[in-house]
Amino acid sequence: MREIKTDTITDAVRQIVMDAATDLGDDVVAALKAAKKVEKSPVGLDILNQIIDNAKIARDEKAPMCQDTGYAVLFVELGQDVHITGGDFEEAINEGVRRGYKDGYLRKSVLGDPIERKNTGDNTPAIIHTQIVPGDKMKITIAPKGGGSENMSEVKMMKPSDGIEGVKSFVLDRVLRSGGNPCPPVIIGVGIGGTFEKCAMLAKKSLLRGVGDRHPNKFYADLELELLEKINKLGVGPQGLGGTTTALDVHVEVHPCHIASLPVAVNTQCHAARHKEVVL
Amino acid sequence: MSEKKIITTPLTDETVEDLKIGDNVLITGTIYTARDAAHKRLVELIDKGAELPFDVKGQIIYFAGPTPPKPGQVIGSAGPTTSYRMNAYTPKLIGAGQKGMIGKGEMSAEVVEAMKKQKAVYFAAVGGAGALISKSITAAEVIAYDDLGAEAIRKLTVKDFPAIVALDCRGGNLFKEGIAKYGQK
Ligand code: SF4
Q1: Is A154's pLDDT higher than 80?
Q2: What value does the mean pLDDT take over residues A237-259?
Q3: Looking at domain B4-182, does it have CATH number 3.20.130.10?
Q4: Which residues sit opposite B103 in a β-bridge?
Q5: Burial class (CB in 10 A: 0-12, 13-18, 19+), A261
Q6: ipTM of the complex in this document
């Protein structure tokens, strides 16, 4: 049994909250630079340049790359041999989020009630997904999510007869209907199978993969590449103003499902694809 | 890279008529930020026939809610938010004299109709480029609805604020044109 203090958790979360907001991953930056080489629209090219410059300014000046510093979504892999001491686990995470958003001068975008719509003032509560795993470590990943791209996400309970072609049309249609709203170029997370909530979770988790990381199963790896190519032929382009760079990548995750079902979820991620992790 | 048009606020009919979709512009002057909650309040005032907290005639409203400034900064990161959420409100504000919007993503047919009738223009700024865009903001002051935090109305002084004409006053639509031009079957 290994002990981890809640204070340690709070400090670690505070730090990754701030780092995620300002430091875009090298994989995303490299994909944006690669897109510049193939983008056919001059307006699109200008936009890609602005996005790349923006990422550099954000990193150099420790400024949030986007003003929507998101809803704090955290994934915790908790080793079963860890004993958390010193207080409440979820409160420790929320305290880290609270401090990170304050000390990092990040925007507070969370409302306490969806209908009353009053800001909580400190960007809590966070969304926390915890999974118990073997071992005595704790891995915490933050993936702050902006509203613009989250709003362009969707779950569809398809019929088994819709099959793979139905899945592809749903994904392409979702991207086309989203237009410039989710700040393309986007990264598309697709969850197939499981249940209503499971496929949404798969789509979300798939976005934690690095740009260019393929599904281990060749069938799904090929599906990712096929969808990516087709999405980029839609013409939506950077910011929806036309062009050949609509997505930087597509990630697919799958899960066994019921004989009657074919659940599919699309989680749309903007180019500000922020995530940071820490292992305690 | 195409040439950039320099425009200053407030906008006149002539400036608006001179702009067409795809134009790269650099905006200098005063613009006002407002998002969903502030728009709701502004339109409630228009409906009541009450005075607005600032004169919208000829002005540009920037759909944005910035991050808090760090000590010594005039504003934090300040990129555009998604514009379709303002579809319900913008025609009334155009009716009250507003001449321009800056945001991201497309706006509705009703907004385009109002733009055609009253000569207004919609600019797209690059969503997610908030750190870069804030470099063109030289002053910022909350002038209304401080209680809304990031959603308060801010008067911004901007110099060479980069944007692209996405919907013009003749019904030109760069979103539709872009897809038609670059979409492949
Ligand atoms: S969709 Fe992403 S890049 Fe665009 S404004 Fe929202 S968080 Fe920022």
Answers
A1: yes
A2: 98
A3: yes
A4: B124
A5: middle
A6: 0.94
Phi/psi at A118 (nearest 5 deg)? -105, 130
**Which residue ranges make up each domain of chain A?**
2-20+65-144, 147-273
Reported pTM: 0.96
Nearest CA to ligand 1 atom 7: A146
B110-159 tens-digit pLDDT: 999 999 999 999 999 999 999 999 999 999 999 999 999 889 999 999 99
Closest-lying ligand 1 atom to the alpha carbon of residue A272: 3
**Which of A41, A65, A117 is opposite residue B131, by nearest beta carbon?**
A65
Domain ranges of chain B: 4-182
Could B177 and A242 be called an inter-chain contact, meaning their C-beta atoms sit closer than 8 Å? Answer: yes
Tell me whether B134 touches chain A (CB under 8 Å): yes
Cα–Cα distance, A37 to A142 (Å, whole number): 31
pLDDT tens-place string over residues B3-34: 899 999 999 999 999 999 999 999 999 999 99
* A159: phi then psi, degrees, rounded to nearest 5: -90, 145
Which residues have a Cβ under 8 Å from the Cβ of A235 and sit 6 or more positions away?
A242, A243, A244, A246, B178, B179, B180, B181, B182, B183, B184
Encoded tokens for B21: 């979709």
Selecting from A41, A54, A151 the residue whose C-beta is nearest the C-beta of B129 gives A54
